[in-house]
Amino acid sequence: MTTKSILLLAGEASGDYHAAALVRDLKELVPDVRISGIGGDRLAQAGMEVLRHYREINTIALGEGLRQVRNILSAYRVMKNELRSGKHQLFIPVDYPDVNLRLCRIARKAGTPVCYYVSPQVWAWRKGRIRTIARRVDKMMTLFPFEERLYREAGVESVFVGHTMVKDIPENWDRTSLRRELQLNEDSYVVALVPGSRPAEIGRMLPRMSRAAELFARKFPDASFVLPLAAEHLKPLVQSILADYPIEVRVHSVEAPRIMAAADSGLVTSGTATLQAALCGMPHAVVYVVDPITWWFGLKVIHPLLMEKDVHLAIANVLSIQEETFGPGPIAEMQAHGISITCQECGRALFVPEALQDRAAPENLAEWLTRFRLDQNLTQTMKSGFRRIRRMLEPPGQGPIAAKIVAEMLRK
């Protein structure tokens, strides 16, 4: 039997994480499958031949993009040539739509089926891209259940396969063992400070979080503070910021969910960490700040032109709002318990507080930490909602659903 070949592109760390789990599961089902493409260390460890590392094409700022344009074009040419060669039976693009949707068009012309994994956030912005996806993608595998419905309504064959993190983050972690591992007092009130993974984010978020922790510690001297280090090279930056504040913050080079599961509450920078916090059952406020010009441009230009009106940074809020379409969800449960959390930008009811820009003042963040500590009604209702969110993201069947879908497409 001829060995099957798959080309895959994961253009950033989150895609590398999700795709690596898919590749591991797929190799269990189809041991001789050959997988190559663009990805990172996790995909390499899972058994993919990495033709280019995603760092070569993943850029954040315009200046970085200009410096790396040669690498980006080179990597893009590699993927185009691979698709045009006709030697691959399937193309799996993973999120990263600005590049992947272009490659989907090339795959379609080459007659290579496309199974997209991790949907672009068409529900948040540039919803018109769903028409492009319908023309270029054979099957969409989504991480969120509402995405499946959105694509099916647009005529795209789609399947909700469950979220990778549900399997990776246990529902009932042994907090006592985690606290011993992290050298935290088992009886103290522990606050997690999660300032992001990029130096610029840390530089904006950590001073505010540290000042908020200082204010909180004045009211509650028994509090302990802990910070998950996203990467070892960030340690000097983190320590230099923490040195300006008269509180002890334990910095650990362990995965953030282990710290969140050990904590009583926390402050979390927007992004993947907000979902990790929800799955760990940690009451938290989402904190995000950008420079004033970027904030104004985003609020006045990008949001009204390209984004949906009801878009929020906390993934728990996104899921809770979508759940309202089908009946009472976490937000309704919170309101039934007499708790009101309001979006300061649009005025709608939220499930998780979002402290953005000017509202990310340390005094406001410290107030949220105080509420989490003193208001048991609030924290217990949030934990109940987090359990509902976990249920939403669990796969709808048994076994590695995404890998089974890919294996079936290979057989065809």
Distance N to C terminus? 14 Å
Radius of gyration: 22 Å
CATH fold label of the largest domain = Rossmann fold
Count of the domains? 2
What fraction of residues sit in β-strands?
Answer: 5-15%
Put simply, the count of helices is 19
The number of distinct β-strands equals: 13
How does the overall form come out from the CA principal axes?
globular
Low-confidence stretches: 60-65
What is the spatial order of strands in the main beta sheet? Answer: 10-9-8-11-12-13
**Architecture of the largest domain in CATH?**
3-Layer(aba) Sandwich
The CATH homologous superfamily of the largest domain: Glycogen Phosphorylase B
The major pleated sheet works out as: 6 strands, parallel
Kindly name the structural category. Answer: alpha/beta
CATH classification class of the largest domain: Alpha Beta
Residue-averaged pLDDT:
89
What percent of the residues sit in helical stretches (DSSP H or I)? 40-55%
Give a brief outline of the structure.
The chain is α/β, with parallel strands linked by helices and 412 residues long.
List keywords for this structure.
412 residues, alpha/beta, Rossmann fold
In words, what does this structure look like?
The chain is of the alpha/beta class. The chain has two domains: 5-162 and 395-411, Glycogen Phosphorylase B (Rossmann fold, 3-Layer(aba) Sandwich); 175-393, Glycogen Phosphorylase B (Rossmann fold). Helix content is 50%, strand content 14%. It is built from 19 helices and 13 strands. The protein has helices at 13-29, 41-46, 62-67, 69-84, 97-110, 129-136, 145-153, 164-168, 175-181, 199-219, 235-242, 256-262, 272-279, 292-306, 315-323, 330-336, 362-374, 376-393, 401-411, and strands at 5-10, 34-39, 49-53, 90-94, 115-117, 139-142, 158-160, 190-194, 224-228, 249-252, 265-269, 284-288, 354-356. Helix 5 runs parallel beside helix 6 (129-136). It is globular.
